[in-house]
Amino acid sequence: MSVFIIAEAGVNHNGDINIAKKLVDMAVECGADAIKFQTFKAYESTGSFAEKAQYQKENVPIEESQLEMIRKLELPFEQFDDIQTYCNERGIIFISTPDGIESLNYLVSLNVPLIKIGSTEVTNYEFLKQIAETGKPIILSTGMSTLGEVEKALEVMFSTGNKDMKLMHCTTDYPTAVEDVNLRAMVTMREAFKIPVGLSDHTMGYEAAISAVALGAEFVEKHITISRDMEGPDHKASMPLKEFKEYVNHIRNTEKLLGDGIKRPTKREKHIMEQGRRSILAACDMKKGTVIEKRMLEYKRPGNGIKPELSSILIGRELKRDLKKDEVIQWQDI
Q1: Can you spell out the DSSP letters for 212-280?
Q2: Residue 149 in contact with residue 200, Cβ under 8 Å?
Q3: β-pair partners for 291
Q4: Mutual orientation of helices 207-214 and 241-258 as an angle, nearest 10°?
Q5: What residue numbers bound the domain in which 325 lies?
Q6: Assessment of whether the complete model's pTM goes beyond 0.85
């Protein structure tokens, strides 16, 4: 099964639908399977007195509340209908994360294929239950969470009868330092809950995705941007077009490297065998009628003769023709 690659547009459209569509074009050009946005009304998730998170202060060094910042990143609900239509035209799956019941209901009305839940909602049990009750497949991001908190979140959603859950390992920091990624926690969640896992990658490079895929990640999400120089909380930790195209290629090459797990020679190796492996050769000149002894046999290249492992079958047999030293012995020679 191919790794499902999600281009996370998030709020990197900066409240402009034209930029949002450019991000869709970018995701398509880079070969992503889906593009994800965030659908919200700022008041659904953020109070008037909430401060910006530390990474938001660092990435957007403007004196403003988190609510003021988020309001500038809103897109009207009806524009997501337009974006979804554009995604369908471009042949890429549209996904979005709701921040409240209004945005959730709107996304359900669009018949999105799944609901992606952000890490901030892991302990928001009422909202988790409402999401699960839609019956939609769910991917839950788990940044800032303990294993116990993830377990409780799953219990809440499973209680609705919706069992179609996947977990996304995540570190909620933009960008995430390599030493804070802790990919083995992704494996821990897969083993603990017996459900598919993936990675929401906030690092600056490719190594996290490559390693995650090697460890069994079934899906990978990465923020994309038109330019890291744009104003906004997530641009600096996002990938522009050239890098994201390489990112997707790295993941696809990792899939090829992993293969299907069956140990067998490749088509090219089968040809190389003839020159690379050894056959049974005559250790000396031998006349027709000679009864073969072990001392008369050597094991050398090429590998297009009788395999060395079958030498015991030759011993005691009579030659049907003359052989020169180093000639490959064939079955028709005995």
Answers
A1: HHHTT-SEEEEEB-S-TTSSSSSGGGSB-HHHHHHHHHHHHHHHHHH--S-----HHHHHHHHHHS-EE
A2: no
A3: 318
A4: 20
A5: 267-333
A6: yes
Verify that 148 and 170 share a domain, yes or no.
Answer: yes
Number of alpha helices (DSSP H) and beta strands (DSSP E) in the chain: 13, 10
Q: Are the CB atoms for 222 and 244 separated by under 8 Å? A: yes
Same domain, residue pair 16 and 92 = yes
Radius of gyration of the chain (CA): 30
Q: Which residue's structure tokens are 């994800």? A: 36
Whether residue 101 is predicted with pLDDT greater than 80 in this model: the reply is yes
Q: Looking at residue 285, which CATH number applies to its domain?
A: 3.90.1210.10
**Measured distance CA(84)–CA(95) in Å, rounded:** 8
Residue 62 above 80 pLDDT?
no
Q: What is the CATH number of the domain that holds 156?
A: 3.20.20.70
Q: Give pLDDT tens digits for 299-308.
A: 999 999 999 9
Please count the structural domains in the chain: 2
pLDDT given for residue 233 in this prediction: 82
Residues 183 and 323 in one domain: no
Catalogue the E-assigned strands of the chain.
Answer: 4-10, 34-39, 93-98, 115-117, 138-141, 165-170, 197-201, 219-223, 279-282, 297-300
- Shared-domain flag, residues 207 and 324: no
- Do 31 and 142 belong to one domain? yes
